[in-house]
Sequence to fold (277 residues):
Amino acid sequence: MPELPEIETVKMGIEKTVLGSVIISTKIYRRDLRFPVNDNLEKLILNKRVLGIGRRSKYLLFFLNKKTTLVLHLGMSGKISVRLKSECEYTLKKHDHLIVSFDNGIFLIYNDPRRFGFVETIEGNYNDYRRFRYMGVEPLSKKFDGKYLWFKIKKSTRNLKSILMDQKVVAGLGNIYVSEALWDSQINPNRIGKNMSLIDCQKLVVSTKKVLKKAIKFGGTTLKDFRRVGGEVGYFQNKLQVYGKEGQSCFRRKCKGIVEKSIISGRSTFYCSTCQK
Fold:
């Protein structure tokens, strides 16, 4: 599933192409996505101008005029691509479910083989959207600091991997970047939350922000499905230090450990028990 850096990369690509443009048509080829597409969606966004592009957790947000927000979630395998030619010159591909055309000649295509993503609209304040109501802070925001994390986990009996994957604690983190952040901070994913000191939490927050920013810089991670809006793959998979490295020597300088893999909360977790304590 695309995580925060992948969605942020897509957001930045879309910003360059449709910001300020007006939606002139929407074609929906399949409405049976993860959640059925509203029968009135085409009318709700028609002739609306894109005032901004945002991201909340793993959700893409198109801020339109008249207080309408178009919400798009890519699910497990979704991709958004940008085309500069007119819609009539585009040959529909398998798993193309949505095409949005703009007055500047650009159109966006949402393709999703597994159909685990979805598209919805919000009327009014997007912070009141039901899927955002109980969501935690953004990991790249100032609100996400050592004190915030320590307060959230100081009484928790859950392990850190499970805590960081909990979207009610921090929004947008997933399997890849949690493993990478824990490795960077030299903290074991099995450590129990209440056993973390404030200093430990500060260290983990710094590592989390560092890993996410670097991943965004390199266009995200492409392990299988993810593509940027121009069709390019991300490059951060070439920078991964621990994820997917089971059985390999730890990349940390002077560490002689071997990367291990275990299943935590049903997800594959990669770490070095020698240097991660």
Residues 53 and 62 are 5 Å apart (CA to CA). The helical segments are 4-18, 41-45, 146-153, 160-165, 175-184, 198-217. The first strand starts at residue 23 and ends at 28. DSSP finds six helices and ten strands in the chain.
